[in-house]
Design a protein that fits this description.
homodimer; 182 residues; mainly alpha; Recoverin, domain 1; two-stranded antiparallel sheet; 8 helices; 5 strands; disordered N terminus; calcium-dependent protein binding (chains A, B); calcium (chains A, B); calcium ion binding (chains A, B); EF_hand_dom (chains A, B); EF-hand domain-containing protein (chains A, B)
Chain lengths: 182, 182
């Protein structure tokens, strides 16, 4: 779980630690961090680097000027964001295996207020990890939760009567599914 | 546009060329190609490597045994698939700039049978290329079209009366948006 002094299960706190971690991640000393540099610094509970998808997603969430990089100020926000997700993941990883299995994911979503069918939970795991198909890592968990949050928000905006069913036109549907809700 | 003998605007044909290209791409000589190896061999019309997203998507489409790699047989199918998309892209890239601009994308989708609003076409470009926001490259085009095909198919399955509007429940909606239609 640890990597060159950074253990995501023991989040660092305080500005100096953020600064130290930033300097460590910023391999080329450019004062900016890109997705590749972030990826090289983050190891999930299965001993693998965070996925391209997770790193690209997280950089783009905090990259306000769309340069594909983040500076130290944006990095501090990202750092806190990742630590929040790690705490959340850790709480749901009840057997402390470094992965979330089906029953743990089911309990996690229930606690977040979702009532998903067992079949759907299984779909989420297979989709997140098409290779193993039985468990998801912390980076897969972050990607999954961020997407679910986003799509749930888009659905709720259209579910004005809160029936759990919406009527939606093709272009609107496509816009949401493609990630550009309009 | 060209890369070490491979010019995607002049698609190779015949098995020997596929074999030669496979050997060239398979840097570690494993007899299998992964997304990283594919990425190193494909250059878009803007002189950049195909994106991670495009390469991962294309490998996973042809990786039937879910190893994250494809063999020569799967590669031949992928090779033909990419060439089909390149021909398609070339036909829509009317000014032969190596990119598709807004008016060209609008014409492309009209020819594919879609009637998207100008605003939506603009969304598609900004979403595909958040940095430039004015044009899309061939790898961005492939990713966009594959996703639109998939989501259109899911929508049509539910639009049984062909009204262009569907009623959809939360979990079903989420399943499609997350890419695992159920």
């Amino acid at each position: 779980m640890a990597y060159q002094g950074y253990n995501p299960y023991q989040p660092a706190t305080g500005n100096s630690q953020v600064q130290n971690f930033f300097t460590h991640v910023d391999k080329d000393g450019s004062g900016k961090i890109n997705a590749q540099e972030l990826q090289q610094a983050l190891i999930n509970g299965q001993g693998q680097q965070f996925s391209d998808t997770a790193c690209n997603m997280m950089i783009s969430m905090f990259d306000q000027d769309r340069t594909g990089t983040i500076d130290i100020t944006e990095f501090e926000r990202l750092f806190n964001y990742i630590n929040s997700w790690l705490s959340c993941f850790k709480a749901f990883d009840r057997d402390n295996s470094g992965s979330i299995e089906e029953s743990e994911l089911s309990a996690a979503f229930q606690q977040m207020g979702f009532r998903f069918s067992q079949q759907f939970i299984n779909f989420l795991i297979v989709m997140s990890d098409p290779k193993e198909r039985t468990r998801i890592s912390v980076d897969q968990f972050i990607v999954l939760c961020v997407k679910i949050q986003k799509f749930t928000e888009a659905f709720k905006q259209r579910d004005t009567e809160m029936t759990g069913v919406i009527k939606i036109a093709f272009e609107d549907f496509l816009g949401i599914a493609l990630g550009c809700s309009n």
